[in-house]
TrEMBL record:
Classification via InterPro entries: LrgA/CidA (IPR005538)
Top-rank taxon: Bacteria
GO cellular component: plasma membrane
Protein name: Holin-like protein
PANTHER family membership: HOLIN-LIKE PROTEIN CIDA, HOLIN-LIKE PROTEIN CIDA-RELATED
Subcellular location: Cell membrane
One Pfam family recorded for the sequence: LrgA
Membrane topology: Multi-pass membrane protein
Length: 123
């Protein structure tokens, strides 16, 4: 049991290190991309290239994903402080979210259909 938790802790430390590397690169290069996004991109490319095998982070990442809902509690509580903004521009925010979600769904569906057709034609 202890060995399992030490493995998960070491995987969390690796993920945290990649996150911090992304923050460092963002502050060093002054790119207009948040450090956490850079860190996630680094992790993605490290996984795709095989530099970091999935087994090195899988158990720790799965535990974080299993309890993902807990990470939204602080965000939700923080949003309560912005009630005045929601009263002033709530409709505009809602419409922007609705339109962007619809565009995302349409583009994703179109892309999936195009890729599906190419796969069928290639067989």
């Amino acid at each position: 049991m202890l060995q399992k938790w030490l493995k998960i802790l070491s995987q969390w430390l690796l993920l945290y290190g990649i996150y911090q590397l992304g923050n460092y690169l963002a502050s060093l290069t002054h790119v207009p991309i948040p450090g956490n996004v850079l860190g996630m991109s680094l992790l993605f490319f490290a996984l795709v290239s095989g530099l970091i095998p999935l087994a090195w982070i899988e158990a720790g990442a799965n535990l974080l994903l299993k309890h993902l809902a807990f990470f939204f509690i602080p965000i939700s509580v923080g949003l309560m402080a912005w009630g005045h903004l929601f009263r002033q521009a709530g409709l505009q925010l809602f419409l922007a979210l609705l339109i962007s979600a619809a565009v995302t769904i349409l583009v994703t569906g179109y892309t999936a259909q195009r890729l599906g057709r190419k796969e069928v034609e290639g067989q």
